[in-house]
Amino acid sequence: MKIFLFSEKDRSENNFFKLFDSAYLNDTRKLLFAFLVLFCLAGGLFFSGLLVAAVGGSPTKVLSSLIEGSFQTSGAFGRTLVEAVPLLLVSIGVIVSFRAGHYNIGTEGQVAIGALFSAVIALQVSGPEWFVIVLAILGSFLGGAIWSGIAVGAYLWRRVDVMISTLLLTFIAPNVVLFAVSKDYLLLDTTKSNTRLASQSERVPVEKRLPEFEVFGQELHWGVVVAVVLSLLLTVLLGKSVWGLKVRLLGANFVTAKRFGVTQGKEGATALLLSGGFSGLAGGMIVMGSAFRLQSHIANDFGWDGLLSALVSRLNGYFALLSSIFFAALRTGSSFLAATGVSRTITSVIQGLMVIAALMPAALIVVISRSDFGRKRFGNQKKGEDEC
Amino acid sequence: MESRSSDNVLSLSSITKRFGDIVACNEVDFNVPAGTIVGLLGQNGAGKSTLMNIVIGLYQPDEGSVYVQGTEVKIRSPKHAAELGVSMVHQHFSVIEALSVWESVCLGDKSTYDPDSVKDELFVLAEKYGLEVDPNSRISELTPGQRQRVEILKCLRRDPKVLVLDEPTSVLTDEESAKLFDVVQRVVEDEGRAAVLISHKLDEILYATQHVVIMRDGRVIERIATEDAEAGFLAEAMVGRKVSLRSSGSAFGLTEKEDFKLDVPDIENTKSSSLVLRVENSSCVDDRGRRLEAFNLDAFAGEIVGVTGAEGNGQSLLADVLSSLVPLDAGSISVDGKQISTGVSGAMSEAGIAVIPEDRHHSGCALELTVAENLIVNRAKQLSRWGIIRKETRDRFVNDLIKKYDVKASSVEQIFGNLSGGNQQKCVVARELSASPKILVAVQPTRGLDVGAIEFMIEQIKSAADNGVAVVLISTEIGEVLELSDRLIVMYRGRNQLEMVRKDFEVEAIGAAMAGESR
Ligand SMILES: Nc1ncnc2c1ncn2[C@@H]1O[C@H](COP(=O)(O)OP(=O)(O)OP(=O)(O)O)[C@@H](O)[C@H]1O
Ligand SMILES: [Mg+2]
Predict the structure, then answer these.
(1) Among all ligands shown, which has an atom nearest to the Cα of B42?
(2) What's the CA dihedral at A163, A166, A167, A169 to 10 degrees?
(3) Angle between helix B391-404 and B421-434 (nearest 10)
(4) B42 lines ligand 1 (CB under 6 A)
(5) What phi, psi does B141 have (nearest 5°)?
(6) Which of B108, B289, B383, B442 has a 20 to 30 A CA-CA distance from B394?
(7) In a 10 Å sphere around its CB, with 0-12 CB exposed, 13-18 middle and 19+ buried, how is residue B392 labelled?
(8) Which residues of B touch A18 (CB under 8 A)?
(9) Domain ranges of chain B
(10) Exposed, middle or buried by CB within 10 Å (0-12, 13-18, 19+), for B266?
């Protein structure tokens, strides 16, 4: 990848991820962007339809089942919101770390480790239920933070690139979880129900799950509230607090930051640890709120989808609320589609197509605003943005 | 346009360019006749860079047309501009630090290239114009002067008909500037090209150009043949009021330094005021090969210590050490008698050292943050309650600074990188001075400012000294140093080569010391 050829300073200035920054969008571009989003989503649906038609299904059913499965059928919206919780938490963490100029792309692994921590606590700590629940959730945060902490340590100690170390740690995490759920002295489920001794933990007992509540007929759990409150809080802090200014200064120009006492060791590390912690929290929410048991693939792409959702939101915490619901809807919608008889492989492809469709506008807007037509119409590059 | 004939290599007619509410260029007509150098003057934020960015295809004009050699063209991109024969050396460097010289030079070429032939080409060009630079060295290892050489070589290699230079000498020493103009004049006169020169240094404009165009607030307000112009007139036309001769004199460039007259030596008795900054026996080497060797510097409250020397003799490293960017290998730095650890993030600024850095984009600002955020990074805590920055307090503070320092910004939320170069500099100075520091390290503080703003900045720096700040003025512009300093240190290869108090200032001795001769 070309990015790695640049020095640190160049990297912070010419980074690919800057394209996803909302500062890049001026007013006219915002309109264009909105249009592109609709256009690309329509395109994604169109190709999904073609695909379904090609395997002998009904193409018109794609859109309707996606919508039905994620919003319309009874309880679907609630399921989508519950699914959005881990996505949102991951996204917010990603936003914080990207803003600090550290590209934590190992969220998938941090989700898994967070899930592991919460499962251990929920299954093995005894005490009042509320206490265990709170402890398990806090533990998941700690787990994710520890996993990203390894990358932080390597960076501070030997300047190992965070993008690479977090990514590589992602491949280790599921194996750690697998180890835990396949040893009977750890978490392996040895009850009668698991006769084949599949590698999984016992189920979290009902009273130790996140408490549920109902609004407008939708079943939600308290994780929804926690996630929304935390993400709003972090977004406000990032934009308005002294800490947030420091973090963004670090990401924008770490030399200037150093002069004013903002360091990779303090603010940079905090941002990364927070980011890992939030991913871990997402893992905790999955175990305690929807999966109820630990398996090696517990992260189930939540980490990756959350990362993408953060990019689609252009690193804006408020938009992340929307984009994580979108990604969650895709997940619930395509499960529903699978239930209507479209094969799982096809629904996975459709899900992938829609993700690409959601990511396209960010790339297209650059292409368009650099073109003849776009320059005239959609305004100015920042100085020097595309000098040759 | 009647003035549009084919002997204008480049001709702009009624160009208008808006950014939101700001009209950066307002119906600008601008002609560059073949074989001439046209000077473009104007206050900070007048629209000079914007106009030239239109010519180079970075911006599209909202209205108006561009003609190259008599034919109307729509310049789509810098690449297209280069094909049409227009090349530009930008106000802020646009070379990438991690690349080598030859790579930078052919970056953006459309064809494939062969390293050896590029290097050969560079060698021939460098020979021809006397712009030596090693094609294999990395950009990050070069001094600003050398980087600029690379940019110029890059332009010349494309064989331009029009060469646009946006404040090219602001990073150059006087000799380098003289050499640059030599090259530009040769290129223009002998080879029949043309050039546009943007500069705030009036004597450069008078020296190098044939025509002068003056802009104010986006409009052209004056066009004059250089031979009919003189510095006072230009300054006044530009700023719209009389500017003291003294401050236009500090926009020094090429005038003979021998004529420099000292005003009454107004040395204070430094012994009586307290020692604030002590740099003692300091040595260090950084990865760019810059070095300090047993360097000493004392600065007392209320005095201005000038530090000068030819570019690359350790001054910029000294500034970096005082910005907590580089640790010392030996020696110490103390403020008010207390030793400060070097190279530790924030330590110097904590101890009361404010720095106006040499390269504002490197360590002075964050281009992607807003103007307000850039102005408060050193005092965010004071403006906050419970960790949240209070918006009204912040905006009041920021607006006061903007007003006081006459920063031209569309709002406090404007992205810093979109400010004009001079306005960025004003913001940096404003922020550093507003922190009421004990020590102000000012490296080329007037870089990129217009004559009016220079006058104001110099007043500010002097009054800071009058109020008891110890000022360390690091500059290669010896005129500025001589005018302002109470005491002067000449650096050579990272050492103290010469130290003088104001009443002994002697231009010849200083020049000799800069060249490394000891008395
Ligand atoms: N991309 C942009 N977006 C918004 N405003 C801009 C942008 N570029 C320039 N401006 C505004 O246009 C005005 C003219 O800027 P310009 O850079 O052309 O000034 P200048 O004459 O080159 O000044 P200086 O001498 O300080 O370099 C300024 O007020 C600046 O804030
Ligand atoms: Mg400019």
Answers:
(1) 1
(2) 160
(3) 110
(4) yes
(5) -90, -5
(6) B442
(7) exposed
(8) 368
(9) 8-243, 267-352+437-514
(10) exposed
Distance separating alpha carbons of residues B203 and B216, to the nearest angstrom: 19
Residue B197 in this model has a pLDDT that exceeds 60: yes
Q: Give the strand pairing for B71-73 and B63-68.
A: antiparallel
**Cβ neighbours of residue A127 closer than 8 Å, sequence gap 6 or more:** A135
Domains B8-243 and B267-352+437-514 alike in fold: yes
In the predicted structure, residue A201 carries a pLDDT above the cut 60 = yes
CB A265 within 8 A of CB A156: yes
The per-residue b/e assignment along A317-350, b for 16 or more CB within 10 angstroms, e otherwise, is bebbbebbbbbbbbbbbbbbbbeeebeeebbebb
Give the DSSP H or E segment for A364: helix A344-370
Which residues of A fall within a CB distance of 8 Å from B350? 261
Query: Any CB–CB contact under 8 A between A14 and chain B?
Result: yes
Contacts of B140 in chain A (CB under 8 A): 7
Which one, of A104, A31, A99, A33, lies nearest residue A304 by Cα? A104
Q: Looking at residues B169-196, what average pLDDT do you find?
A: 85
Residue from the list A237, A382, A388 with its beta carbon closest to the beta carbon of B79: A388
Q: Which amino acid is at A336?
A: F
Contact A261 B59 (CB under 8 A): no
* Mean residue pLDDT across chain B: 84
Q: Is B44 in the pocket of ligand 1 (CB under 6 A)?
A: yes
pLDDT (tens digit per residue) in A106-134: 999 999 999 999 999 999 898 899 999 99
Strand partners, B338: B335
User: What letter does residue B312 receive in the DSSP assignment?
Assistant: T
Q: Find out whether B279 and B462 touch, Cβ atoms under 8 Å.
A: no
CB-CB under 8 Å, A242 with B380 = yes
* Cα(A374)–Cα(A17) distance, integer angstroms: 21
What is the pLDDT averaged over residues B229-254? 66
Q: How confident is the model at residue B501 (pLDDT cuts 50, 70, 90)?
A: confident
With respect to CATH, is domain B8-243 assigned 3.40.50.300?
Answer: yes
Dist CA B332 CA B342 (whole Å): 8
pLDDT digits (tens, 9 = 90+) for B423-446: 999 999 999 999 889 999 999 888
Q: Measured between CB atoms, does A214 come within 8 Å of chain B?
A: no
Cβ(B252)–Cβ(B479) below 8 Å: yes
Which uninterrupted H or E stretch holds B383? none
**What is residue A212's three-state secondary structure?**
strand
CATH fold for domain B267-352+437-514: Rossmann fold (3.40.50)
- Is A78-332 in CATH node 1.10.287? no
> What average pLDDT does the segment B338-350 reach?
90
**Does the structure show a pLDDT above 50 at B105?**
yes
Give residue A56's region: left, alpha or beta (phi > 0; psi -120 to 50). left
Angle at Cα B394 formed by Cα B391 and Cα B399, nearest 5°?
Answer: 120
Rounded-to-integer distance, Cα A384 and Cα B3, Å: 31
CA distance B494 to A57: 78
Q: What are the angstrom distances between the C-alpha of B101 and each of A43, A272, B115, B136, B143?
A: 45, 36, 11, 6, 12
Phi-psi region of B91 (alpha: psi -120 to 50; beta: other; left: phi over 0): alpha
In chain A, which residues fall in CATH 1.10.3470?
78-332
Contact A372 B78 (CB under 8 A): no
Task: Tell me the one-letter amino acid at B499.
Answer: E
Q: What local confidence, expressed as pLDDT, does residue B231 receive? A: 84
Q: What is the Å distance from ligand 2's center to B296 Cα?
A: 37
Count CB atoms within 10 A of the CB of residue B360: 23
Q: Is B53 in the pocket of ligand 1 (CB under 6 A)?
A: no
Radius of gyration, alpha carbons of chain B: 23
pLDDT tier at A174, thresholds 50, 70, 90: very high
B516, pLDDT greater than 90 = no
